[in-house]
Amino acid sequence: MKKLRDVPSPGPEAYDRARTALRTAMGEPAATVVRPKRWFSWPKVSVAAVGAAAVAAAVVMGMSGGSVPAGPSDAAPQAVEAPLVKLASAVQAAGTQPGDASLIINTKFGPDDKPDLYYTLYTDKGQQFTGDSAKTLGDAVAQGHAEPATPYDGKVMAAARLAAKGDVDKARIAMITASNNVLGVGLSPAEAEKAWAAYQAENAERFRKLGKPVPAPKPRPTGKDLENLVNNHLWSNTEHALFANAADSEVRAGVLKLYATIPDMVVGKTNVDGQAALTLTPPPAILGGGADVLTINADNGLPIREEITSAESSKRYVVNYKSSRVTLADVAAGKI
């Protein structure tokens, strides 16, 4: 794979799309989300190779026999809701800057502290362009090498916009179910049980076709396990929307409102390079025991930094973000 040097490096969102495509094809409920997409250093490979690699990674890391979270939980504590909802209102009032696309530049630092740079351009028409430098991104735009839009991308963006417009409860369910709805989110208890039973039957049939022993049926998650899965997917899917299209004020405002619905998330104050910032720290239980701290600008909500600590290895990863509105013409001309 490393010898395929004739195409631009895929962006981190390619992992998400491949994982989503796999889950859609398999009908597999998502387990607790393990999110390597913003710290893996991908070789320069073709889209097909990325898909194969992502499928392998998704099978190992993204599907541990869990299930998609279902249903919104109770409203978040006021201590969390107040600052994020207030910031969301300010973001909406400021509006989106001129341009026809949102650019986000990610600089990732893994345990070896070597930086990996990624450029992701999300257009107002729903296309994505990626590159590992301003030049490769510009070349991709100039040559029209857009990555195809996926239903998942469209769903997370639509959910964020719905939250921004005020229907947060409906948007929350839409964001949680952006990948699938195996547990019947928003359905009656009977319908949800039926959806889960259908999944169990489909899962058993897949194992039979593979010639493998059929696993014993699993009951639908309940109680705290269900709540943690709900908030895990809300956190991860909402972050996808933010990191793909942060410079769009409507998407960003909706993201902030959805974050405010996660119970027990701690919102703190800090300062990054002279700018006031907020830290968002979800409870470890929804991250499978790991840690994830997202730092955003306190005035405009743009992402600044994310610090992730793996539950399995205790390794720490840092991602820095820069977001802005741009025009496709400028990017194609190398004006970034």
Walk me through this protein's architecture.
This protein has 10 helices and 8 strands. Helix 5 (151-164) packs antiparallel against helix 6 (168-176), helix 5 (151-164) packs across helix 9 and helix 8 (223-245) packs antiparallel against helix 9 (249-259). The protein has helices spanning 13-26, 47-62, 78-94, 134-142, 151-164, 168-176, 189-209, 223-245, 249-259, 328-332, and strands at 101-109, 115-123, 128-131, 266-272, 275-281, 291-297, 303-309, 316-326. Residues 1-12 and 23-79 have low confidence and may be disordered. An 8-stranded antiparallel β-sheet has the order 3-2-1-8-7-6-5-4, sandwiched between helices. A hairpin with a 5-residue loop joins strand 6 (291-297) and strand 7 (303-309). The chain has 336 residues and is an alpha+beta fold. 41% of the residues lie in helices and 18% in strands. The protein starts with 12 loop residues before the first helix and ends with a helix.
Strand order of the largest sheet: 3-2-1-8-7-6-5-4
Approximate strand percentage: 15-25%
- Give a short account of the largest sheet: 8 strands, antiparallel
Overall helicity: 40-55%
**Shape, please?**
globular
Q: Count of helical segments?
A: 10
Rg, Å, rounded:
20 Å
Mean pLDDT: 79
What's the count of strands? Answer: 8
Poorly predicted runs of 5 or more residues: 1-12, 23-79
Question: SSE order, as H and E?
Answer: HHHEEEHHHHHHEEEEEH
The class by helix and strand makeup works out as alpha+beta
Cα(first) to Cα(last) distance is 29 Å
